Design the sequence.
């Protein structure tokens, strides 16, 4: 059985936990088309790699 660390596709709850967001905000991001997702029946799934890319997309270097 896969652990959450190994799962490629995450549920909304798992993705929200991974990002540190509330599930309601995660759904807003999908509605605003800011976060890639897949529709699966009535639910949505998120690819772990897409979530990592979302987090690092606006990375700023530290100024020393």
Sequence:
């Amino acid at each position: 059985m896969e652990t959450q660390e190994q799962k490629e596709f995450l549920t909304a709850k798992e993705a929200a936990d991974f990002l540190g967001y509330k599930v309601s905000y995660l759904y807003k991001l999908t509605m605003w088309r800011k976060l890639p997702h897949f529709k699966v029946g009535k639910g949505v799934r998120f690819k772990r790699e897409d979530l990592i890319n979302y987090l690092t997309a606006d990375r700023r270097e530290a100024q020393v």
Summary: The helical segments are 12-19, 23-31, 48-56. The beta strands are 9-10, 38-40, 43-47. The first strand starts at residue 9 and ends at 10.
